[in-house]
Write a structure and sequence with these properties.
Layout lengths: L2 H16 L6 E6 L8 H16 L4 E6 L7 H9 L4 E6 H4 L18 H8 L2 H12 L2 E17 L13 E4 L3 H10 L2 E4 L5 H6 L5 E5 H6 L8 E17 H6 L2 H35 L3 E3 L4 H8 L2 H4 L7 H8 L3
Parallel strand pairs: 1-2, 1-3, 5-6, 5-7, 8-9
Antiparallel strand pairs: 3-8, 4-7, 4-8
Helix pairs in contact: 2-11
């Protein structure tokens, strides 16, 4: 090799070695939950660690718990506006942008997790996710089981009539508002960070949540009866700005999506493993667990919610049920 060619090759090699890697990016990672022992918070930390490791520290996530960045609805709006934020949310909340997503958080929509898997893998869900992207929001994790949701109150709730006139806190979600209105209660939308104080001060009579959240937020200090209505199987989602996502290098996009899928499986596993333990913890704090709930009566009432939720595409519930093989 000629000396000039050797010098050129060495110079090129040095330039490539000195070429900077991707610019370091910081992403705020938000949730309403507080307790570090809750499955969702554990999964957030493991997700952040894996992303940092796989990107060589070029993509780092800073975790904000307890609505530090604001209530879920506000943070979702920040995401839509292009903020460098990854938010833990749910499909009831996301229905403010794509109303049809509300059915993913609808009452008694699923009877088992195999049905949910089919729906998340269907063209019905893919179309809704695409419409969410058109609104500026990109799903990173889509199917992390957050838990079966039940009612915590100061009395047993075995049938819909037991909730007549009961003021119950629900998420800021149209489908949840209509669900409890159909049952006969008086739903009040409040951020999760306000639930404990609202129960303690009797602003609301009751609340509804999964076992992990009921225990993690110590709601057992305010109410002593949990009725297993199972009115919703909630799935958490990680959502970020589509504009932010599109600016990331392709390899970092791939890492986020791959780790989002892993996070969904991890959250589902941890939730299923921990639900019974959380129920036992509630019992240790003097909470009565009501199991003889007339779920069929609740389902018959709650199904009316699908007819009055604003913005649903005609036939979307039937299409979803068909995709699940119902």
């Amino acid at each position: 090799m000629k000396v000039s060619h050797l010098i050129h090759a060495l110079t090129l090699s040095m330039c490539l070695a000195a070429a900077p890697a991707h610019a370091k990016t910081n992403l705020r990672f938000a949730t309403s939950q507080v307790n570090p022992e809750e499955p969702i918070v554990k999964v957030m930390h493991s997700f952040a660690d894996r992303v940092k490791e796989r990107t060589g520290g070029e993509l780092r996530l800073s975790i904000f718990t307890g609505d530090q960045l604001g209530p879920q609805k506000k943070v979702n709006e920040m995401v839509k506006s292009g903020g460098a934020i990854l938010n833990v949310t749910d499909y009831g909340q996301l229905s403010q942008f794509v109303p049809d997503l509300g059915i993913m958080a609808g009452p008694y929509m699923y009877t088992n997790l195999d049905q949910t898997r089919k729906l998340f893998e269907s063209d019905v869900f893919a179309d809704m996710a695409a419409r969410l992207e058109a609104q500026g929001m990109k799903l990173i994790m889509v199917d992390g089981l957050f838990g079966y949701r039940h009612v915590i109150a100061n009395k047993p709730v075995r049938k819909p009539d037991d909730m007549n006139g009961m003021t119950i806190r629900v998420p800021e979600s149209p489908i949840m508002m209509e669900t409890f209105a159909a049952i006969g209660a008086r739903p009040t939308a409040l951020p999760w960070s306000d639930v404990y104080n609202s129960l303690q001060s009797n602003v609301v009579d009751a609340a509804e949540a999964n076992y992990g959240s009921l225990a993690g937020s110590k709601l057992y200090e305010t109410r002593k009866v949990v009725s297993e209505t199972g009115h919703q199987i909630m799935f958490a989602a990680f959502v970020t700005s589509k504009a932010f996502f599109d600016k990331l290098p392709k390899d970092q996009q791939q890492v986020l999506l791959e780790e989002g899928k892993a996070a969904g499986a991890e959250l589902t596993r941890l939730t299923l493993e921990s639900d019974q333990a959380y129920a036992e913890l509630l019992k240790q704090h003097g909470v009565q667990i009501i199991k003889d709930v007339d779920v069929e009566a609740f389902a018959a009432k709650a199904i009316q919610a699908y007819d009055v939720v604003p913005g649903l595409t005609p036939g979307i519930v039937e299409r979803a049920r068909k995709a699940m093989g119902q």
